[in-house]
Every structure is written in structure tokens, then in C-alpha cells.
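User: Some background: our group keeps a shared notebook of sequences we're curious about, and every so often someone picks one and asks for a predicted structure to add to the entry. Today it's my turn. The entry only has the sequence so far, pasted here. Could you supply the structure so I can complete it?
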Amino acid sequence: MSAALELLPALVASGPVHTRDVARRVGLSASRLTHLFGAQVGLPLRRYVLWLRLTLAVTEVAAGADLTAAAHGAGFSDSAHLSRTCREIFGLPPSVLSRNVHWDIEHSL
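Assistant: Of course. Here's the predicted structure to add to the notebook entry:
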């Protein structure tokens, strides 16, 4: 899974991430990647991608981007979608996290 983990931050930053594309890049079927990722990383691939998208958006807000730009840059439909998802996952809005948390998404696991 190290190959997938290394690829994912750049893929998330460049746009939508599709399991089949990640699987093709690491030489596995999508179903095998999904199974192995969950077993070895400890959470589903889609959830990990969501976490990376959230950290990317919060990092962008901390760097001065407005919520809408950060949301779109991280693949959320709008700032409300980003805020709602951030509250569901972290219990805080992205503006609070951006002031108090620093993530290095290149080395997140």
C-alpha cells in the first residue's frame, strides 16, 4: 500500500480521485486495492481520500485562500459542502482548524 499512499496526496491535489485509476497505477484491480487498503491502512480508501481532501482544503485556508476557493481546489462542490464535511469529520469548521492545526499531507501516514 505504500505506492498508493505515496500517490494519493498528489492525485487529490490534482482533481477527483477514482479507485480504478489508483488501482491501475499500482498494478491491482480496484476491488483488490480497496480490500488491501482497508486491511493495511485501517480505514477505507474513500475515507482516506476524503481526509486528504479535508486537510488540503484546511491547509489552503490557512495559507490565505477563501473557503470557496479552498473547497473547489480540494474537490468539494462549494464552501458549505466543505464546512459540513469538516464538521462531520473533525467537529469543527475549517476556519477554526486552519488557525490551529498544521498538516503535512505529503507525510500524513
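Suggested note for the entry: Helices lie at 2-14, 19-26, 30-41, 45-62, 67-73, 79-90, 94-100. Residues 11 and 17 are 6 Å apart (CA to CA).
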